[in-house]
Amino acid sequence: MVPSRPAFVLHDHRRPSPHFDLRLEEDGVLRSWAVPRGLPTSSREDRLAIAVGDHDLDHLTYEDEHKSIADIGWWEDLGRTPKRRLLVLHGREASVRYALIDTGRDWLVHRTKDQPAP
């Protein structure tokens, strides 16, 4: 039996102010971060990610008039330490490697220089 792959979703959330929500399926819930400016598009920039409360798994495909799915797919855990999680998001159009870095106050999302082969 092949284990199921953990899901992720990136919500484009328009209220209370425009931002994105990154949600990773883990331990039966969606671990969540609000990412005000969205995921970084280059390795030369980091983006603020604010950890928010876990969400139920049924939130994975949730949409309404203020929230839409910007990307969805599965994610791969490439390793972690207490301060950093390295992962690949396998979305609808691309697979991108990121690091989530715990600064002690908030988190940063960093797009790594090394990326998976297309």
From TrEMBL:
PANTHER family, sorted: DNA LIGASE D 3'-PHOSPHOESTERASE DOMAIN-CONTAINING PROTEIN, DNA LIGASE D, 3'-PHOSPHOESTERASE DOMAIN
Gene Ontology molecular functions: DNA ligase (ATP) activity
Sorted UniProt keywords: Ligase
Enzyme class: ligase
Organism of derivation: uncultured Nocardioides sp
Domain of life: Bacteria
Classification via Pfam families: LigD_N
Entry EC no(s): 6.5.1.1
InterPro entries named among the record's database cross-references: LigD_PE_domain
Name of the protein in question: DNA_ligase_IV_Ku-like
Domain DNA ligase D 3'-phosphoesterase span(s) in chain numbering: 11-66
